């Protein structure tokens, strides 16, 4: 694979171009992409043109650039994430009808929590997580429960930080994180009290795959002042149902913690 003068491969530079797009920035000019990707403008023009030719990106009538259909096509093909989503979605829908709030499915990817699905509810509390969004694990209940059942070396790396505070309640030290994940492991679920959004509380339970090892997290976001204890049994029942489906798909712990890029990047 040809490299740039800096030693960076073509694929790495193309991924930087793709990563320039965010959930709220679906349409960008080439100069904006170059700035976000930290690439020379001429290089960005060339990479964008090649990606447009391959339908990875596409241009609108004003020559602005957005994500193309090919990435969507690829994402819909069989994968561990698709297996997880297919096994979880029917149960998530039932759970949402009961709790009447946001219900989410998440995994660890590249050291961050990646949300595979989010079922929203009109007039529910503000929820900053969305489908395909990433959040540091110490800032959300899904991340806390995933860390609670993670191998010790993963927990140790997460406790090294750094920690970015979003609210006065955010976890700021490794000692705080270790205490929270220890309590979460002991009680079998995690609660995040306004870590990301000061008016919201997250509750998460683990989802288990082959050999009873954690592979994902199921979470609910409710108002901070709401009592979460009444919904925990329903979430645990949903966890058992989804986990049974995941066993059939043979999703393994190795796929979660030891796949390329799965360990926290510190």
TrEMBL record:
The UniProt record lists the keyword Transcription regulation: yes
HTH iclR-type domain ranges (all copies): 8-69
UniProt keywords, alphabetically: DNA-binding, Transcription, Transcription regulation
Domain IclR-ED: 70-248
Keyword Transcription set for record: yes
Highest taxon, organism lineage: Bacteria
Transmembrane segments: none
Record-given protein name: DNA-binding transcriptional regulator, IclR family
């Amino acid at each position: 694979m040809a490299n740039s003068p800096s030693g960076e491969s073509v694929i790495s530079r193309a991924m930087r171009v793709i990563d320039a797009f965010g959930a709220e920035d679906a349409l960008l000019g080439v100069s904006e992409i170059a700035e976000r990707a930290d690439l020379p403008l001429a290089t960005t023009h060339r990479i964008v043109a090649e990606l447009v030719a391959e339908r990875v990106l596409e241009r609108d009538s004003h020559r602005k650039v957005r994500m193309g259909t090919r990435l969507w096509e690829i994402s819909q093909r069989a994968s561990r994430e698709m297996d997880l989503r297919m096994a979880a979605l029917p149960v998530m829908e039932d759970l949402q009808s009961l709790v009447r709030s946001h219900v989410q499915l998440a995994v660890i990817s590249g050291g961050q929590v990646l949300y595979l699905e989010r079922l929203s509810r009109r007039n529910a509390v503000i929820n900053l997580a969305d489908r395909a969004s990433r959040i540091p694990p110490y800032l959300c209940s899904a991340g806390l429960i995933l860390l609670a059942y993670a191998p010790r070396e993963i927990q140790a790396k997460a406790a090294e930080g750094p920690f970015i505070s979003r609210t006065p309640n955010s976890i700021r030290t490794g000692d705080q994180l270790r205490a929270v994940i220890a309590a979460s492991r002991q009680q079998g679920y995690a609660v995040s009290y306004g870590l990301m959004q000061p008016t919201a509380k997250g509750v998460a339970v683990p989802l288990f795959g082959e050999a009873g090892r954690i592979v994902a997290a199921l979470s609910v976001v409710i108002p901070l002042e709401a009592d979460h204890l009444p919904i925990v049994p329903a979430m645990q029942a949903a966890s058992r149902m989804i986990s049974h489906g995941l066993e059939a798909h043979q999703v393994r712990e190795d796929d979660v913690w030891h796949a390329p890029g799965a360990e926290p990047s510190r």
